[in-house]
Design goal:
This protein is of the alpha/beta class and 371 residues long. The chain has one domain: Deoxyhypusine synthase (Deoxyhypusine Synthase), CATH 3.40.910.10. The chain is 49% helix and 12% strand. The strands form three sheets. A six-stranded parallel β-sheet has the order 7-2-1-9-10-11, with helices on both faces. α14 links the parallel β10 and β11. The longest helix has 18 residues. The radius of gyration is 22 Å and the shape is globular. It starts with a helix and ends in a 7-residue tail after the last helix.
Length: 371
């Protein structure tokens, strides 16, 4: 049967797959390049992700890191620190758990390798908490809580803050008071003015401690206003020429980033084109209909992603504790480095600019959404 030549040309345009050749002196960058040649399954997607992230850096894209679950107890905070030191991450949206457990390292409290094949009733009796195969003792949690509560007390009078403002204050306290700030991503974020947002501020031990101080503290309290987070993250995206994200896992942090584009278009009435780039490392599948499994292609239908002729998004279906270190090592081997954007210092200016443009849009277009 005669084959359709034009279709063959269309679909057989990439390089031929060859067996991977291993060497004793092979580096991570060599391994990723070999994945590019093999091109198959998620090894190929990881190679795509590495190169797409480099493209984001080369085009001076404003890059967000969204971090779900509890990756810092597994040591992945070090990958984030390395990226921030080279100006490769401009702002972060994280679960509170990642930021809380990050504090243990700064204070110098031990987190132990454990095992998931254990009797959890015995762990409870021993005062040991388990995160899969990671063990944390009651004492570590209580000492971390005490540090957090002291930071809250030292803040003094009543203050209404976004989570970025609170985490910046927390990072400064780590730099000043903790013996090992070099191990803390929260401290490095404060040092490089990288804003850290939490999409669910009450859903962690940090939120629990903030709530506890409201109950007992008499000299003023901190109130977290998550509406400010929506405005500040949207303002960052609005004031950036190009936007992209590296999403570790999915969940609320991922959507909190993705929703900035519908906020601009659907709520404020701007002509927003969607995010320029998106890289996700996840184990969630799209067919269950959950948000964590929602692909960037699906996000195009919501105006969250810009559709381009060239591939501008990739999903790597892999355990992040495997893929994230490989991606980080590959990026660092490229010697890419940028001056920090220091977005935290620009938040008031960004929100003010966006507000003026929203007001002008409403004034000049009576059909625009009204806030």
């Amino acid at each position: 049967m005669k084959k359709h030549a034009s279709l063959r040309k269309k679909y057989l345009c990439k390089a031929q797959i060859l067996p991977i050749t291993f060497r004793e002196d092979m580096k991570v960058a060599d391994l990723v390049e070999s994945f590019s040649c093999s091109g198959a399954f998620n090894a190929g997607r990881l190679a795509e992700a590495c190169k797409l992230f480099l493209k984001m850096v080369e085009e001076d894209t404003t890059i967000a890191l969204t971090l779900s679950g509890a990756m810092t107890p597994a040591g992945l905070g070090g990958t984030v620190i390395s990226m921030m030191e080279r100006g490769l991450i401009d702002f972060i949206i994280s679960t509170g758990a990642n930021l809380y457990h990050d504090l243990h390292f700064a204070i110098g409290l031990p987190i132990h390798q454990g095992d998931f094949r254990v009797d959890d009733s015995e762990l409870f009796k021993a005062g040991i908490e388990r995160i899969y195969d990671i063990f944390i003792t009651d004492e570590v949690l209580l000492e971390t809580d005490a540090f957090l509560q002291q930071v809250i007390e030292d803040a003094g009078t009543d203050r209404v803050l976004s989570t970025a403002e609170f985490h910046y204050m927390l990072g400064k306290a780590i730099l000043e008071k903790c013996p090992y700030p070099e191990h803390s991503l929260v401290a490095h974020a404060a040092r490089y003015d990288v804003p850290i947002f939490t999409s669910s501020p009450g859903d962690s031990s940090i939120g629990m401690n903030l709530a506890a101080k409201k109950l007992t503290q008499k000299n003023g309290n901190i109130t977290i206003d998550s509406d400010l987070d929506v405005l500040q993250t949207t303002a960052i995206v609005y004031n950036s020429k190009k936007n992209g994200a590296l999403a570790i896992g999915g969940g609320s942090p991922k959507n909190f980033y993705m929703q900035t584009q519908p906020t601009l278009s659907q709520i404020f009435g701007f002509d927003s084109k969607g995010h320029d780039y998106f890289v996700q490392i996840t184990t969630d599948s799209p067919q269950w209909g959950g948000l964590s499994g929602a692909t960037p292609r699906e996000a195009i239908s919501w105006g969250k992603m810009c559709e381009k002729e060239t591939q501008n998004h990739v999903v790597v279906y892999c355990d992040a504790t495997i893929a994230m270190p490989i991606l980080t090592a590959y990026i660092l081997s490229s010697k890419q480095k940028r001056n920090p954007k220091r977005l935290y210092t620009k938040l008031p200016e960004f929100v003010s600019t966006m507000k003026k443009h929203v007001e002008n849009l409403q004034k000049n277009n009576p059909l625009s959404p009204k806030m």
